Amino acid sequence: MTNDALTLAVLVGSTRPARRGPMVAAWVADAARRHPRFAQVDVIDLADLRLPLLDEPVPAVFGDYRNPHTLRWAETVRSYDAFVVVTPVHNASYPASLKNAVDYLYAEWNGVVVGFVGYGAHGGTRAIDHLRTVFAEVKAVTVPQEVSLELLADVDFNDAEPADPTAPGRLAPRPQQQDALDALLDAVAVWARPRAAVG
Amino acid sequence: MTNDALTLAVLVGSTRPARRGPMVAAWVADAARRHPRFAQVDVIDLADLRLPLLDEPVPAVFGDYRNPHTLRWAETVRSYDAFVVVTPVHNASYPASLKNAVDYLYAEWNGVVVGFVGYGAHGGTRAIDHLRTVFAEVKAVTVPQEVSLELLADVDFNDAEPADPTAPGRLAPRPQQQDALDALLDAVAVWARPRAAVG
């Protein structure tokens, strides 16, 4: 069973304009596509889903989804065995857009393996800490290995106005970050189970 | 200075349909209006504001707000000295709607005193824990006293179908919860400073 090919989604957690999430996700997806265990690797950008703030009348744990956007999102999550969640830190925690997307579903997260790639002045670590409790609640398994990209060390601002907060810069991870990402992907591959095995 | 009258907002943190937040906020506001230190007590329901997921291109810390809904929200928050935040627990943390509303602003939260009233199966305590780090990041001061309403002990479901998750029930707090609320409001009154003193 553990040799089965896995499907992996790299989730862009922030939907804010001028966010850095897409370039971080592209870096993660590139590495994942080189990994032998992942047969399919897709980037899912929450900005494309355009989920409104949670508008389901019944809590997700009851599985009684009413809205078309919820049903579409459920189908999407259900099609992956594992996730790498790319998250910035917003005010010492995760962005609302990411929590909103998690809260829409329940059963679809059960048994999923999740790894975190954080970014921010201090590597997004506080966002990751809060997300571990959130994903545990929806019965996903989070791997301890994580990647924490630091804005002043892993992003190149040379071609941007340094004082412009809307300039995302260009991702230039230090070599140890590539190692950390490979370790994260290895851990996800070790712990993830195909949906057929857990569902 | 500490004898100055204070303005207090009771913030309904969840915007989910069938939420219990408005009835909890009404209970908090009733008690606050009986408190001698609060000259003005208003309930602010985030559902009425209809804030979209954070769509400002510049992080709030830079104070460069671009959207009309952000400017309106900033003006609202700026007009209060203190907040009681009413929060459910969604997946072992706060609801996305509440974090979204916090993340829109920065300077307007600075120096504000915040108290928490949580509700949920276990009193919303995990939501409150995460919110303390969030509000500290926007330089608000959170008082240690808190109210944790437990759904099975402080809500009367007698006139509802118990198995229906969309039935909010009727708030019926145990006597000790009223005491806890009064202690929370006292603490907010002790620590809050009029905006003129901190702004």
TrEMBL record, chains A, B:
Show the GO cellular component annotation of the record: cytosol
Q: Where is the NADPH-dependent FMN reductase-like domain?
A: 8-149
- According to UniProt, the name of this protein is NAD(P)H-dependent FMN reductase
Q: Which InterPro entries match?
A: Flavoprotein-like_sf, FMN_Rdtase-like_dom, NAD(P)H-dep_reductase
An example Pfam family from this entry, by short name, is FMN_red
Q: Example GO molecular function term?
A: oxidoreductase activity
